[in-house]
Amino acid sequence: MKQIKTVLAVFLVLSVVLVAGCSSNTDNKEQAGQQNGQITANDQAKPEKAAPDKKAAKNIKMTVYFPDENGQKLIAAERTLDISTDDKYTAAIKALLQGPKKGEGIAIIPAGTKLLGVTVNKDGLAEVNFDNTFVKKFSGGSTGEIMLVGSITDTLTNFSEVKTVRFLVDGKPLETLSGHLDLTTPVTRMQNIL
C-alpha cells in the first residue's frame, strides 16, 4: 500500500510539473506576440511581415540619343533608368532598344535586336555586345550607320568614366556595320552629330 501511495505521489508531482510547464510555454508565446503587437482575435500569433525587398527600385536620370527624322543629328531624350536589376550602362542601352517617345526622333537599332551585355573596363572602354540581328536587320546606308553608332556611343559616353565604345556581335568584335564606318578601333564620342 505504501508503494501505491508513493507511485501516486510521484505521478501527481509529475502531472503538476507538466501542466505548469505547458502553461508557462503558452504564456511565453503570448507575451512574445503581445510585445510585437501581433495577437489575433483567437490569441494566435501572426507571422511577422516579410522584410522589404532589398532590391528596391534605384533610379538615375540620364540622357540617351535618337536620330532626328532627317538623319542629320541626334536628339537628346531624358530617361529615368531603373538600376535595381541592371547596371547603368545596360539600362541605358535597354532604353535605346525601347525606342524614342513622340517627338524624340526615330528608332535606329534594328527591331528584334537583343543586348547580350555591356562591360566597361578601367581604361574607360565600353564593350556593347548584341546578337546578330543587329547586323542582319540593319538596312540603313552610310547616314543610318553613323546615326546608329553615334546613338549608342554618345549615350554611353555620357557617363564620364566611358571614353570609347567597341561594338561586338555574338561576342566577336564588329569590323563594320554595313561597310561605311570602320569599327575595328573603339569609337569616341561623336560630338559633330549632337
UniProtKB/TrEMBL annotation:
The record's PROSITE patterns line, in alphabetical order, gives: PROKAR_LIPOPROTEIN
Descriptive protein name: Sporulation and spore germination protein
- What range(s) does the GerMN domain occupy? 89-178
Keyword tags: Signal
Q: Which organism is it from?
A: Pectinatus cerevisiiphilus
Q: Tell me the first and last residues of the signal peptide.
A: 1-20
**One Pfam family from the record:** Germane
Superkingdom assignment: Bacteria
